[in-house]
Predict the 3D structure of the following.
Amino acid sequence: MRLVAAPNPGHVYTSTNSGVMWVSNSASSYWKSLASSADGNKLVAVIGGSMEGPIVTSTNLGISWMAGNAPVSYWFSVTASADGNKLAAVAFNGGIYRSYLTPTPHLNLTTSNTNLAVSWLIPSTNFVLQQSSDLISWSNITNPPVLNLTNLNNELYLSPKNSNGFFRLVAQ
């Protein structure tokens, strides 16, 4: 399990092994609030208290950070969707900032017994799984995916006769 923490003041610390070991990065400030995508890869942080600051984000587990387009403000709290593509922040004056990035879902293909297991992180946009044998004509796979609450992945198991070809996710 990936974790993120930040003392106030201090650096942002991340852990990829449930908190056994922590790594500090170069982001140091008076952090008011941190949020993370479900997989821990995308992070968002705001400066708060008596300091104004930007909303900063990281898409690589906190290795590098960049300020977004949000106004500099006295931030109170920030949150992120499971896929990290929707962000919301609340300022001390009551203002609310929202940001939405077009998600780029990634399909994971693995074998499970004799079936093909197809999974993808629950994005903030609904997607339909499609299949093609020739990359020209695509058809929706009508089996509904099952939500795995352990890793927040949609999962679908296909029998061997239905697991040949190409797969993609298409926004609804």
Summary: The longest strand covers residues 23-29.
